[in-house]
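Render this sequence as a predicted structure.
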Amino acid sequence: MRTLFYSSTNVEFPFDVVSQPEEFPEFFEYIENRRWEIAQPRRAESANDSRSCRIVFATIHTISDDNGLAHSSQAVRDESARRVLANQAWLENAFKVAAKEGARGVVIFTQAAINFASPSAGFKPMMDLLTAKAEEFDPALQILLIYGDAHQFVANKPLPGSVIVSPTGAIRFRQRENFTAIQVPGFPQGNPGATGRIKVNVNFADPDLFGLYLSTRNERGLQ
């Protein structure tokens, strides 16, 4: 897969795409972990706005079965443990780049769905890092995690934020507003024609940065 699909490309991108081995030779095999940036020129009326009109994108290789750690094959489990280390390094680096560039957003593309309330061992390092970065950069940086897996549309803000204490003393948590997770629609079982699609709009003048539009039309344009 890596040799066939990642070794070269005939697609011309209007931006530079960096793969993990270029910056982390020790993780030479993970060429599917990529990063790129998109910037929007400042408009005249926002020239005095110190906030950057830049977003950092990153791909992170995750799989089901506890990110591979629960697989029946020892070889797969060994590869998964190394891949978790590579993913951590790549994800941490994406936030370093975002901080250096003063980016307004970080968008992360991955495959596996995560139990955000109680992540398993294969996903806990990733979620610990994302939680820490969301807290560190709140509210200046919006983080958007996009994943597939079950391919049923889900959009939420799954990380807890500040603590709320009710008059009765009950403790609850606000949602952390600068972290959004989207599970994209795909091919629901028994209904392969209803793929649906999600459009993400970016508005640098909006503190929330990302706006979502969901279409449930199938490939023929029918509901």
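Summary. Helices lie at 2-5, 20-23, 64-67, 74-101, 124-137. The CA atoms of residues 64 and 112 lie 5 Å apart.
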